[in-house]
Amino acid sequence: MGQDLSRLSLFGARQGLESGRVTSRQLTEACLEAIECRDGRVNSFLTVEYQAVLRAADEADQARKAGKRAPLLGIPLAHKDMYYRQGRVSTCGSIIMADQPATTTATVLERLDQAGALELGALNMSEFAAGPTGHNAHYGDVHNPWHTEHIPGGSSSGPGAAVAARLCYGSLGSDTGASIRVPAACCGVVGLKPTYGRISRYGAMPRSWSNDCMGPLARTVMDCAQLMQVLAGRDTRDSSSLDAPVPDYLAALEQGVKGLRIGVPTRHFAEGVDDEIAEALTHSRQILEQAGCRLIDVDVPDPKLLYDLGETLSKGEASTIHRRWLQQRPQDYSDHVRTRLEAGQALPATRYLEALSLRGEVVRNFIADAFKATVDVLHLPVLGRPVPTLAETDFHSSGTVGETVSAITRFTRPINYLGLPALSVPCGFSQGGLPIAFQLVGRPLDEDRLLALGHAYQQLTEWHRMEPEMVASG
């Protein structure tokens, strides 16, 4: 084939394998060549398993010839370096974990293995998943493939950048307050934060056990649906894992969205949004209307309380997880990560317990107020401002860096506290040439509906087909 195989979608790669037009070896070599060519400007990979993944690709090709069938057989992926595999080091973006081989394997990796997926290597991330920008003092900052002086978003910075730069066909990230949706939005790819407990967290680095969600980033909504089909489902090793049937996410994409009612905020989530972002959001809603959806104005509750409650849980739990290392190895944290963790140590227990005890009531009230009986899905911004630069969000810079960083998660962190599913979908570009995205938020376990809506949108638009110049120019 004359085309650059690294530029295929995951679905396109799967079609090529199943038809016999391409081999896993060819797909893998294309990704490895892309990494060699482009990742020096992006810094998304921490390690690349050249020989191991090529051997695995050859084995996948032999297995396919022998009649084996699996949904991801022979497809190269790469994941945020926080998923443990027995005997292998996962750095978690830190130097503290750099010499600690894992004693177990994450459930999500086991499920991907069973589905036949390959691993190209480990992806960079914000240190201990602390930060929405992509800075990392230990392994170097990750750069946005669209404009390398800008942030890729975080903490799943490597996944967002690697998928956008066409270095792998999909990736696992994690989302505690923004960390799948913001990188997806900044890098112009699709990211799904599922319902809390929908995907197992067993064997993944914890940041905040009350907020952490595992989920996929990929080039299209259809690609995310394929990954969700493999990842979702009950895991008895994870006490927070939901015991609920897993729908056919791929089949759901074709069910149609005519008549679905989309809630559009009249204030709060609509406030503080730059004009060019607001214009792109409005146009995306008009496209969904063309697909047969109905737009309904809703008065979504103020996200500030939800943000503060979610932040309280994250601070308290992260500080608890890191208490021993903060005492024994404080010098091994970067300054801004250590400062954030130490702030959690000063958090009164009464505030943490209040945030925890209020959660059930707050979630019920939010669903009742925002969705009512008239709304199926909410349409909200991911970022309210154009993607900032790495310099503007560097904690060593002077000025209002803290405010800029906090603003990045203003519209995403509340959804983690609520535990609701949310899908980030690209919908345009800013005047500066950086991606813009919206997020669809649903009721618990409504991932299939969100994916169907996102897919319908992508059937009528071309944003997901756009590529950074570094990809298009080869």
UniProtKB/TrEMBL annotation:
Residues 27-451 form the Amidase domain. It holds the Pfam family Amidase. SUPFAM superfamilies: Amidase signature (AS) enzymes. This is Amidase.
